[in-house]
Design goal:
2 copies of one chain form a homodimer. By secondary structure, chain A is of the alpha/beta class. Helices cover 33% and strands 25% of the residues of chain A. An 8-stranded mixed sheet of chain A has the order 3-6-2-1-9-11-12-10, sandwiched between helices. In chain A, a hairpin with a 7-residue loop joins strand 11 and strand 12. In chain A, helix 1 crosses helix 4, helix 6 packs parallel to helix 8 and helix 11 packs across helix 12. The longest helix of chain A is centred in the first third of the chain and has 16 residues. Chain A is globular. In chain A, 51% of the residues are buried.
């Protein structure tokens, strides 16, 4: 009967009905004897609408003012949610990120939380109230300016508050019943994962699973906060993300799930002189313009020419920037040409259990081969294998791999309740 | 070339185009060598939309949460305005009421400003920036909760900041060219008033002129801040509201203008025993439910019955509450009946010059009589005469009085630029 932090995404509070539904769920938790802290995102499309407005007045909005603008979104949803709870006869108080003590650095639009001092939240809880906190926002330590945490910020707010307040669980409410063995929109027979270790969840998040973001899981792992991902539309138990007990009660699954990602593009630097330092110069040029690259592959050099190809993937949105940066160093490095391909998909198989199962890679590749899917790139970690394929093969590939590893459920159990937003 | 505080209402920043137009005007003021502090209201109908949302989730929203909700409106407009200014190449920083040091009492939805500590505004100005401040909002001294100032709050924010910062003028931008001798929507030949004394403006504001609210003018008078009311749509000089120099350069106008108000209702308590203390008991009952009444008239008692009638006016929205309160004390006081009439209008003639002109009242009543308008109630102050008439006579009455006092302009000069909102 301890403290529970609950986070509701934008699709859960998209309209007045949604807010009232969420209010009832919160009150139920309170009635069950818990202290409740709620982190809420902006309603439905509010944030997108604010971004559109900003674009209309200024093509490149300033970070400080952009954050001031966007934080209006949670201010609306949290105040409405507090009102709805009070209307059910329970005390509720809403707090901005700043009031909740979410202290960040000064990097507007992508601030990092550096401290949480939730004195006002604790006081509200001690007084018997439910505390509603604006997700996604904080206040900078140096300049006391309003900041936002960037993508997935509300989940991070929730986990950070759970850590600071010593919550027994951080519940992340979304529009699906939990984390699935594959995207239920692609694989009808995807199964809900009951429990998953932080590290597997990190790999899934990093490679295309959109239910939880990497950053939030990383934060939870650091502070050992169990996350319970569940739907605000159903009453079902969702997925628990937590430390895997070492040789403990749980039989460790070989494979946790199959993630896919169609948001990346592939850049190939063709005809790079195969001598020490050339690859470093290429990736320095990329790093200098602050691009994050994902997979990197260097082909074996053709002995006859002394030239090699270097291929990497990165978010499509950053493709233009990468090409420009590389064109600038082309003369210095002396490569032949650049190839850009955004018609790719990445399919990743994740599972801590694959460490001890050497047959996993073979089964994975056989499944793809049997489905007639060609592999263009391969990259592996200790608990993950990723391949790049043509984008049109992605659904076929994910389904084939899902079946090959015995992940299919008996029934089509996956349900997506709300819209696609969070 | 001193400090100028400018306030822009919701109709001036109703959309992206409006925000860009206002941004250009602000930059022009800055280029003319002024330091500029801008107070901005929520965009267009934003506040009404937020109120509707609140009603959907809770029939009687809590004050604290309601304020948290409403303040999102200015947050959006001020951030967009700062972006638009920066896009024109000038530094601008937006500040919430709390950040701007607007300290209030804890009366949510109708907080009073009790202190202004604009340290961050001064710092922004010293750094050469334009400061954009959210109107209508502050932070409570005791609980550090977000508060709103109620109706006309943004104008009050502007005047309060002007006073705290020692501004040379507070410019209030609206959708008309200034204060007119009558509502230009009713009287086509209404003239713009060039200069008006605080006390005349207070009477106009109290009796139906909507350009400036009483509270803001009162604040300006107390701190002797000149207000310049003007249009954000035209470049015209507007109306200066300031101290009237005693026997100074200005010839004092006999009449400043004609105000009208159709928002009130009339309550008559019929058959009140005409003995000491009865009126007091009636108005104590009204005061106990926190109603503000306006005009009060007691008829001469009819000698035969020893009974009298007491009539008062109050905002229509509070009519139900007044009737309920009076019905409760009916037995104790022993009056006959209550009459409620919301089909009335109040027409007020305002001018400091009428003090020394005994013919004003006669001219006023003659004008109404000639127009066939019946007078139901009369109330006067030293610089104002108000009458209550049938609501259907109001336009005719205002025009007749306007003409009778020689206020008509040669041309139809009044222009209303934007919507009707502020």
């Amino acid at each position: 009967m301890g403290l529970v932090v609950q986070k509701y995404g934008g699709s859960s509070v998209a309209d007045a009905e949604g807010i009232k539904r969420v209010a009832r769920r919160i009150v139920d938790t309170k009635k069950a004897g818990h202290q409740v802290v709620v982190v809420v995102s902006a309603m439905g499309d509010t944030t997108d609408e604010l971004i559109d407005l900003a674009q209309e007045v200024s093509p490149i909005p300033a970070g400080r003012e952009f954050d001031m603008l966007l934080t209006a979104g949670e201010r609306i949803s949290m105040a409405l949610l507090a009102m709805a709870i009070k209307n059910l006869g329970h005390e509720a108080l809403s707090f901005t990120g700043s009031q909740a003590g979410v202290i960040t650095d000064s990097a507007h639009n992508r601030a990092r939380i550096i401290d949480v001092t939730p004195g006002r939240i604790s006081a509200a809880l001690d007084a018997g109230a439910i505390a509603i906190v604006a997700g996604f926002q904080g206040v900078s330590q140096d300049s006391k300016d309003i900041t936002t945490l960037g993508r997935g910020g509300s989940d991070t707010t929730a986990v950070a508050l759970a850590a600071a307040l010593g919550a027994e669980v951080c519940e992340i409410y979304t529009d699906v019943d939990g984390v699935f063995t594959a995207d239920p929109r692609v694989v009808k027979k995807a199964r809900k994962i009951e429990r998953i270790a932080y590290e597997d969840m990190l790999e899934l998040a990093a490679h295309g699973s959109k239910v939880l973001l990497h950053r939030c899981v990383e934060y939870a792992r650091r502070y050992n906060i169990p996350i319970h991902v569940r739907s605000s539309f159903s009453g079902h138990t969702g997925t628990w993300v937590q430390n895997q007990p070492e040789g403990g009660e749980m039989e460790q699954a070989i494979i946790s799930g199959v993630a896919h990602d169609t948001s990346e593009a592939k850049v190939t630097v063709v005809g790079v002189p195969d001598k020490p330092g050339e690859a470093a110069r290429i990736f320095r040029a990329i790093a200098d313009v602050e691009l994050n690259i994902d997979m990197v592959v260097q082909n074996v050099s053709a002995a006859a020419t002394g030239l090699t190809d270097i291929t990497f993937t990165l978010p499509k949105a950053e493709g233009r920037k990468a090409i420009d940066a590389l064109e600038k160093v082309r003369g210095g490095i002396g490569f032949d040409s650049l190839r850009y391909d955004d018609q790719i998909a990445k399919i990743s198989l994740v599972g801590a259990g694959m460490r001890a199962n050497p047959g996993v890679t073979a089964t994975f590749f056989e499944a793809l081969s049997n489905a007639g899917v060609n592999i263009e790139l391969i990259s592996t970690s200790e608990i993950r294998i990723s391949v790049v394929t043509r984008i049109e093969d992605v659904q076929e590939a994910v389904r084939a791999v899902h079946t090959a590893f015995g992940l299919d459920s008996e029934t089509d159990e996956a349900v997506v309740y709300g819209g696609t937003g969070r």
